[in-house]
Amino acid sequence: MDKVKVVASLSNDLIKEYNIKRITVRKDDTVRVIRGDNFGFEGKVTQVYHDTGRIAIEGLTRKKSDGTPIYIRVHASKVEITKLNTNDPRRREIINRISSSKKGGSKER
């Protein structure tokens, strides 16, 4: 199976700060659910499932029939990123590259 890019939109504050509307979700990003039964829930991403395009959020669990808790997987299009994890220098480079291309506006064809 192919690896799916798990992309989510950014909150309005982050859009103004980074000049980017959406970016790939990574572990340790903070997200808020904006659709579905868990609307309004906010937490850290604990796992990203590239095969289905879904993410697991810390604290968003349900109990199995034997009582063990498991993460509820939420599709990335149903969440918005409220805080980016910028500890990785490669990710900072990606953010800078995308935001600078949006500011420049002139593309050679």
| Global mean pLDDT | 91
Helix content: 10-25%
Order of strands side by side in the largest beta sheet? 2-1-7-3-4-5-6
Residue ranges: pLDDT <50 for 5 or more in a row?
none
Give me the strand/helix succession: EHEEEEEEH
What is the overall shape? elongated
What does this structure look like?
This protein has 109 residues and is of the alpha+beta class. 21% of the residues lie in helices and 38% in strands. It contains 2 helices and 7 strands. The protein has helices at residues 12-18, 89-104; strands at residues 7-10, 22-24, 30-33, 42-49, 54-63, 69-75, 79-83. The protein has a 7-stranded mixed beta sheet. The chain is elongated and about 55 Å long. The mean pLDDT is 91.
Topology:
Blueprint: E1 7-10, H1 12-18, E2 22-24, E3 30-33, E4 42-49, E5 54-63, E6 69-75, E7 79-83, H2 89-104
Parallel strand pairs: 1-7
Antiparallel strand pairs: 1-2, 3-4, 3-7, 4-5, 5-6
